[in-house]
Here is the input.
Amino acid sequence: EAQLGFWRPHISTPMRECQFTAGGKTSLLDYTILHVIDDMDVCSYDKHNKQVVVKESWMSLHFLQCATWLPLPYQRHSHPSHTLYSNGYQTRPDSHHNHTLQFFMGCEVDNDIDIGHSIQFAMDGEDFMKIDDQNDDWTVMKPEAEPFKSLAESNFGSKIRDKAMKKFCFHMMRKILQYSSMKENGKFPVLLGPGVTVPRHDAPDGRVMFNCTATGFYPRSIQLHWEKDGQLGVWGQESSSGTLPNADSTLYLQISLELPPGDSETDYTCVVEHRTLQTPAVYPVPEKTTVQRPWVMTLSVLTVIVRVLSCAEAFITWKKKKKTGIRVMRGGKTNSARAR
Here is the structure.
């Protein structure tokens, strides 16, 4: 099975994937289409029954109605799969054999912002060629993809790709989010803000690790990033756990920042953005804790003890003097007067 990858930043937003699998000799004799949102199968279509099957009960009838045109782009000869068959495999010596084509298209949105997208082909279970928003050039993994690459990089191919991505990925994603009944039937019952912690770990070799952890939040869309002096940038080695589920159905995300020895380690902050926050929340990293050596602590304690004993001795001496009388001779009588 082909490994169809998709680049994602430290952002967790709804992502729609369209997986197209087809088979045939010189034409697409059979094909199926699978649509996925956040790793959940939403609906499917296959050529034999020519019917869209919605697999999740929360998907409203509104989307089911607008999804009747879902297979149309795959039936037209302008679809890349037809071109790939005609240019890449009809001329091969083994063209009389059946071949399996997998077409992957994924997009990610946050409200009205298009976060990213990716397109990838696989042929007979092997990666064929791909393109994404981070690299606007087609990457070829098989020699047979070279003829198709020329067409895909032409103005005609670029227009088809942009139109298909806009209409059948981003547009449909917004339709899904608009018409779905997630909130009404308990899929998204409440809004929960994230609890955030930013501990630090100092390694013996001088490296410093900060972990920014957001947990207990819902819905899924959240963004975490590091800033220094209020500025975005790459300050060290960064990593992310990805958004993971908690036992109570809330979500969890952790990003890490490792700084090399000698870094100032100050003015770093973890910035968190979530639907429950009116403005981005800023969490400064903790400063390094000063650890005193044992002999220094012992000396400090002894100094305090000596001072306490000295004060106690002076107080006792003063009390004794206060209680001691001074004899004064007046008119042949002896009176006792207290010292002042």
User: Anything to note?
Assistant: The chain has six helices and 21 strands. The CA atoms of residues 225 and 339 lie 74 Å apart. The first strand starts at residue 11 and ends at 12.
